[in-house]
Write a structure and sequence with these properties.
The complex is a heterodimer. Chain A is an alpha+beta fold. Helices cover 54% and strands 18% of the residues of chain A. Chain A has 14 helices and 12 strands. Chain A has a 6-stranded mixed beta barrel with strand order 2-3-8-5-7-6. A two-stranded antiparallel ribbon of chain A has the order 11-12. Chain B has a 7-stranded mixed β-sheet, sandwiched between helices. Chain B has one domain (4-226): Rossmann fold, CATH 3.40.50.300. Classes of the chains: A alpha+beta, B alpha/beta. The structure holds adenosine-5'-diphosphate and magnesium ion. Magnesium ion binds at residues 46-47, 169 of chain B.
Chain lengths: 406, 235
């Protein structure tokens, strides 16, 4: 019945200012909501990508007991067979093997517990971006003998500088204490202050010579073609090998995984808050429109317009109003997102310290098709809910209102 | 058969708190083609009577029959549909849809009746011409005078081809000229097309135009006279 449609449309424009304000609120609300959510998504995504790419990788392989115990004798068995298996898997982009041990760092000032990480420079650089965290000195491809890299903060605590010498003490694979002196070749500053305080990097060749009489590896970092294949890759690996265990980055870093989940919750919350505000706007506007039209609706009921039709008329008004706003709002949001996902959002002014702790202040907002669908669904559901109440009120109007003096 | 008949029609407002006996045992019968005015002082029950016979309100006791059909027992939905197809309404405050043109206001009723779209337009134009608004078809209520709006309301009431038209104080918001003009139109419809009108008023000039005058006092029929409108009462 397009007359009803036309009646609803014209009724909406009876108060251009009032309807206009609601329309604008819906548009701005939706657009701002989507951009906020997209920015948070982008921030989260960039953080996760950064951590995965810089060190964590998509999946890691260890001796099943290594992560819990950290003993150097819990090295990965069948290392060669694993490497050739990895090289044959098309999902694997690159991988790097690391030799690890817990130990003690001694400087003239003090001693502190650290994890010593033996790095294969060539494959590590191919696999991760950790070398970009270097802020002073040289990376491990230096000519310096027994080179070590450490975090700037750890160096400060020990009053150490480039070129200084430290002693690292650790258990070798036979359980005997071993120690050797290393020369500080470079200082790094990564995204995590904790990591910087607890890890020192050495060349795996240097480290293996001190640790065992044969090559030993405790961790293989694997970059995959995409994050999505991590689960299946890990499952396949674990059914192929029993002496070593693969885990996804989510399993390895539950707190990072939680950050992503938390992001999802925030997205939901923000959407809900915006929609709740819109629902009140719709409700308020429609109830106002209704109270002004008591006599008119009384007349319609008197002359024989059925209550279901009156219900549809009022529903239609809210629905048309909201959907017009929502359609334009989503359109604006999509355009803003298209622009911002290329230009980026500069958050420097809001959080000066962001770069300090390794968060990018240039954020490239991100919004998946699924999230757009979710937002639109929420808009539709909330609109219908907010429209039902005024429509129900409308059909309870007494036809005698037509004759009442208002 | 009477087109409209009430039997011992009574209405008590607020029966449980402060009962107001607005209508007491009113029994009247109106035939097709009558031009009837319900008169009486303010508070005498005119509006109450018209609301009851129009199926807008339920009587406390008594019966309303429209061409022999009792409307008291009808459910709300049935009654709404019954009003749509049988009764035309004209209100004191015109009550047009302000966002609709005169023509749309008139055809809207026919739309509710699911009438044929093309015939609807023709009939709406025809009715507007008949009430002297042939050149105001596209005007919207806010652009019209009170008299013009009330003529649109009469055209709207006629559009649904009702058995009779009820008008509660249709001239109360109009100046004398507009009121007399409206009465002319109603009278002409009555004479030329045999449309039955029942209207309430307390305006003597309007009363003078009626051919039957039912007078209410305190909710009861005080007198019911048939007469020649131009020569006074003939009983
Ligand atoms: N909704 C109502 N509730 C209570 N009393 C009412 C109501 N409507 C009318 N009345 C009373 O009923 C009587 C008749 O009113 P009404 O039919 O409006 O008279 P009229 O139209 O002749 O002025 C009056 O005393 C009026 O106060
Ligand atoms: Mg009255």
């Amino acid at each position: 019945m397009n007359t009803l449609l036309s009646l609803s449309w014209r009724n909406i424009w009876r108060h251009p200012a009032r309807s206009g304000v609601l329309l604008a609120a819906i548009m701005v609300g939706l657009c701002a909501g989507v951009v906020t959510v997209g920015t948070m998504n982008g921030l989260m995504r960039q953080r996760v990508d950064y951590l995965i790419e810089s060190e964590l990788t998509h999946a890691q392989i260890h001796h099943p007991e290594f992560l819990a115990e950290g003993h150097s004798w819990h090295s990965i068995p069948e290392h060669d067979r694993i490497i050739s298996w990895l090289d044959g898997d098309p999902r694997v982009e690159s991988h790097t093997s690391r030799t690890l041990s817990d130990g003690v760092l001694q400087s003239p000032v003090r001693a502190s517990g650290v994890r010593i990480r033996g790095i294969d420079v060539e494959s590590e650089v191919r696999t991760t971006t950790f070398h970009e965290n270097l802020v002073e000195g040289e990376y491990l491809d230096t000519d310096v003998r027994n080179a070590v890299l450490m975090g700037t903060r750890l160096a400060e605590e020990h009053n150490l500088d480039l070129g200084n010498r430290i002693v690292l003490t650790f258990e070798d694979t036979d359980g005997r204490l071993a120690s050797a002196s290393f020369n500080i070749a470079g200082l790094f500053k990564s995204a995590s202050a904790d990591y910087d305080e607890l890890n020192v990097l050495v060349r795996s060749d240097d480290f293996i010579r001190l640790l065992a009489d044969r090559p030993v590896y405790h961790e293989i970092g694997v970059m995959l073609e995409s994050e999505e294949v991590a689960e299946s890759f890990v499952a396949d690996f674990n059914s192929e090998f029993t002496g070593a265990e693969a885990q996804t980055w989510r399993e390895l870093s539950p707190e990072l995984s939680m950050l992503v989940e938390l992001g999802g919750v925030m997205v939901f919350l923000i959407t809900m808050i915006i929609m709740a505000a819109l629902a009140f706007g719709i409700l308020n506007t429609m109830l106002m429109a209704l109270f002004e039209r008591m006599r008119e609706i009384g007349m319609l009921l008197s002359v024989g317009m059925s209550r279901p039709r009156v219900f549809s008329m009022i529903m239609l008004e809210s629905v048309i109003l909201t959907f017009t706003g929502a359609a334009v709002g989503i359109g604006l949001a999509w355009m803003s997102m298209t622009y911002l996902s290329r230009a980026g959002v500069n958050l420097e002014m809001f959080a000066e310290g962001m770069a300090e702790i390794g968060w990018d202040y240039m954020v490239y907002p991100l919004m998946s098709a699924r999230e757009y669908v979710a937002v639109v669904t929420v808009v539709i559901v909330i609109t219908l809910l907010a429209s039902v109440y005024p429509a129900l009120k409308a059909i309870r109007i007494n036809p005698l209102e037509a004759a009442r003096d208002h | 058969m009477a087109i409209l008949k009430t039997t011992d029609l009574s209405k008590v407002y607020n029966p449980d708190t402060v009962p107001v006996h607005a209508l007491r045992d009113v029994s009247v019968s109106i035939e097709k083609g009558e031009f009837t005015s319900v008169v009486g002082p303010s508070g005498s029950g005119k509006t109450t009577l018209l609301n009851l016979v129009g199926g807008l309100d339920k009587p406390t006791s008594g019966e309303v029959e429209v061409e022999g059909i009792r409307i008291a027992g009808m459910k709300d939905r049935e009654l709404t549909n019954f009003r749509l197809h049988n009764i035309g309404f004209v209100f004191q405050h015109y009550n047009l849809i302000p966002v609709f043109s005169a023509r749309e206001n008139v055809s809207f009723i026919m739309l509710l009746q699911n009438q044929d779209k093309e015939k609807m337009q023709e009939r709406a134009d025809e009715l507007l011409r008949a009430v002297g608004l042939g050149n105001r078809k596209d005007a919207r209520p806010p652009q019209m005078s009170g008299g013009e709006q009330q003529r649109v309301a009469v055209a709207r009431a006629l559009a649904s081809k009702p058995k009779f038209i009820l008008a509660d104080e249709p001239t109360a918001s109009l100046d004398t000229e507009a009121a007399m003009n409206l009465l002319d139109i109603m009278q002409r419809m009555n004479q030329e097309q045999n449309v039955t009108f029942v209207f309430s008023t307390h305006d003597q000039r309007v009363i003078d135009r009626a051919r039957r005058v039912i007078t209410l006092v305190d909710g009861a029929v005080d007198s019911d006279e048939h007469r020649d409108p131009d020569e006074g009462a003939t009983a």
